[in-house]
Amino acid sequence: MTIGNRVYLKRSLPDPELIQRFSKLPTADVADCMSRTSGLSPEIKLQSSPDSYMCGVALTVKARAGDNLMLHQAMSMAQEGDVIIMSNEGDRSRALMGEMMYKYLADFKKIAGIVIDGPIRDLNVLANEKCPLYATGSTPVASYKEGPGEVNVPISIGGVAVMPGDIVLGDLDGVVIIPRKDAAAIIDKAEAVTANDPIKVKEAASGSIDHSWLKGTMEAKKVEFIDDEYSI
């Protein structure tokens, strides 16, 4: 087996009902239910104009910096409901995808979304498209197609580990990774948080939100309060 230059054709998939339930939740609420450690770096931003949240199953791509050979391989394997999510060794010099690749995935393959740790190009067109597309920015300079790379292996993107088959959720705030094996344990709590959001927003707007925790926290952290102005 050639480690670093291989394609796995199979992956374990989450329960489709979990995908459907997570698709209705904002990333912020889900991230709060995972100790606030599951969100990709804010450098990876939404570049298109979807009408709804992105939620699908991770089809992972590990690429050499500035090379999209294995992205093309993943495109040929992608199924409806997948989210192609691609690491790129932090490279920002070359666009990994443009209009033609995007249209193939969005219109023909009907995937749920695309997350790329690197730039794209043809942004003048892609900015108005509906399939969710996350990337770090844009450049007109194209990528190489030489490899090596891997498909359906663990990757690291935006400071978060992603396994093939994890749930990938995205909205205007960014992208959250929900580990496949943890999804069932998270969903009920996340739905409860979202259901309570309107109440908390109403309390915040009226000034009746509960801040009783603040005094105890400040005391526990030994914050000093000084009844004077700062001077030098």
UniProtKB/TrEMBL annotation:
Taxonomy of the source species: Bacteria, Bacillati, Bacillota, Bacilli, Lactobacillales
CDD domains (UniProt xref): RraA_family
Organism superkingdom: Bacteria
Subunit organization: Homotrimer.
Stated name of the protein: Putative 4-hydroxy-4-methyl-2-oxoglutarate aldolase
InterPro entries on file: RraA/RraA-like, RraA/RraA-like_sf
Family: Belongs to the class II aldolase/RraA-like family.
Cofactor: a divalent metal cation
Coiled coil stretches, renumbered: none
Species name: Candidatus Enterococcus moelleringii
EC number: 4.1.1.112, 4.1.3.17
Protein task: Catalyzes the aldol cleavage of 4-hydroxy-4-methyl-2-oxoglutarate (HMG) into 2 molecules of pyruvate. Also contains a secondary oxaloacetate (OAA) decarboxylase activity due to the common pyruvate enolate transition state formed following C-C bond cleavage in the retro-aldol and decarboxylation reactions.
Catalytic activity: oxaloacetate + H(+) = pyruvate + CO2; 4-hydroxy-4-methyl-2-oxoglutarate = 2 pyruvate
A Pfam family per the record: RraA-like
Matching SUPFAM superfamilies: RraA-like
